[in-house]
Amino acid sequence: MRGLALGDAFGETWFFRPAEVLETALVERWVKDGEWLWTDDTAMALSLLQILDRHDRVDQDALAAAFAAAYAADPYRCYGASMHDVLLAIGQGEDWEAVTRRQFDGMGSWGNGAAMRVAPLGAWFADDLDTVVSEAVRSAVVTHAHPEATAGAVAVAVAAALSVRGVPGDEFIAAVVDRVPDSEVASRLRRADRIASSSDPRHVAGMLGCGKQISAVDTVPYAIWCAAAHLDDLTEALWATALAGGDIDTTCAIVGGIIGARTGLTGVPADWLSSCEPLPAWVDDISDQP
Ligand code: R7I
């Protein structure tokens, strides 16, 4: 959870910067002064973690209510465009399944929002990949009914579980894709698996996308490739991920969640940690549990 929030807040400091500014700043390793605020990626991951802590599984009604309550308490966290309607309607008592299914002319959202929040779930159930997959799906469909959004969530949750398990980088993407349902996300992951880990992320983003379309397809394979290339170094992974631009807070949240599940915040510079908006105190109580 802390890796996800750090990635989200780090990425948000770069969001919507012109490519030239981004490139110079990232190559020179310049970081923004002042507080780095996390966004909807972290807000929704916190709700999901809270439900896991209370129920030890994804109680979908409770999760929908938690998402809606967090949105009502703080709607200015840069939520995806359709989430305003979805979370307001759920907060007003509408059935989450009906609200979620009717998005985008009945197709459901293919946005990256179900994937961006799910890494802590993968870590939670890391001992049992079947449960990782089934609970990731149950968590995704509460807001994202499209199969590509669900496939993206499965991929990220499995990646976080494999990260906890210590799977090495050269086996990582193949092990993830093995568990992802047939989809465009899966086929781009297979493409990602053929790209050398030493490649320039900007080149990789040209082949896989890097979230410019805010879809799971355009976001998740790139983020998992970046994570696999730097599995033991969260800081380096975030620099590399941001370099390509795109939906940086979300690609970095996914990468931070996956690698943080393995390394915690080890090696992250102290000034990054002090810049990042703190998480609620209850997160510490969860991580203190055996
Ligand atoms: O997926 P979602 O929660 O967005 C998350 C992103 C992250 O980057 C957050 O940090 C935040 O900035 O937004 O929100 P959605 O609105 O469900 O999906 C995101 C966007 O994907 C939508 O606003 C649409 O532009 C696009 N999209 C679709 N477009 C056409 N048809 C999602 N589903 C469709 C679709 O079916």
UniProtKB/TrEMBL annotation:
GO molecular function terms listed in the Swiss-Prot or TrEMBL record: hydrolase activity; metal ion binding
Cofactor note: Binds 2 magnesium ions per subunit.
Residues annotated as transmembrane: none
Pfam families referenced in this protein's UniProt entry, alphabetically: ADP_ribosyl_GH
Name used for this protein in its record: ADP-ribosylglycohydrolase
Gene3D superfamilies per UniProt: ADP-ribosylation/Crystallin J1
CC cofactor: Mg(2+)
Residue sites binding Mg(2+) per the record: T39, D40, D41, D247, D249, T250
Entry keyword set: Hydrolase, Magnesium, Metal-binding
